[in-house]
Amino acid sequence: MTGRKTDLRASQRLARWLLARRGWQLDDKLPPVDSYVIIAAPHTSNWDFPIGILAKWALGLEFKWLGKHTLFRWPYGWLFRALGGIPVYRHRRENLSEQMASYFQRHPGTVLALTPEGTRSYSSHWKSGFYHIAQRAGVPVALGHLDYGRKRVGIGAYIELSGDRDEDMQKIADYYADITGKYPEKQGPVRLR
User: Fold this and answer.
1) In what order do the strands lie in the sheet with 141-147?
2) Cβ-count burial of 113 within 10 angstroms (0-12 exposed, 13-18 middle, 19+ buried)?
3) Is 52 helix (H, G, I), strand (E, B) or coil?
4) What is the pTM of this model?
5) Burial 46-57 (b: 16+ CB within 10 A, else e)
6) What pLDDT does residue 1 have?
7) Cα–Cα dist 50/143, whole Å
């Protein structure tokens, strides 16, 4: 699996056309490496998923994403898996960050998209899994966005983690400071617990 295809396929052209028809502009500032973690934020609406999948296709990306296991039940489980979904069983006592970091080591070219808010509802903090996975795997973090205020979707920047969590999170918070979700009142602060 590679993070990005180089040729502009028919599916890419169709996805770009569909986004443009809905008024969305595409941002394409991908890390210059094959493996990375993508933050997909803010996540305030069910519409984030189809717009995010269109952006995935428009950018020519092949990435995995994590979702709660209940999304993968019949009748739509096969579709979510085909779209790159990996079910997460929250009730199991497993270290998901270590498992995913190991996955990066075993599968070069892995790209993983995560919604650190973990919910479409308001949350007072982000979950730290994206940070721990990227740090343990030694990969950069791409800053993906669904900015409904400006109708922009894609990846606008990336950072190499320094190991100073506060400094890294400040850079991430600065990036997302003026990005607006579909429902801004559901958008919590960009900070870890």
Assistant:
1) 25-28, 152-159, 141-147, 36-41, 111-114, 64-68, 85-88
2) buried
3) helix
4) 0.87
5) eebbebbebbbb
6) 43
7) 18
Averaged pLDDT, groups of 10, the chain, 193 residues long: 61 96 96 96 94 94 86 91 84 78 90 90 92 95 97 97 96 97 95 91
Which residue, chain included where needed, has tokens 């934020």?
41
Give me 183's structure tokens. 């429902």
Amino acid in the structure at residue 117: E
d(CA 145, CA 179): 7
Give the pLDDT score at 92: 67
So where are the chain's domains? Answer: 10-186
If we measure between CA atoms, which residue out of 17, 44, 37 comes closest to residue 184?
44
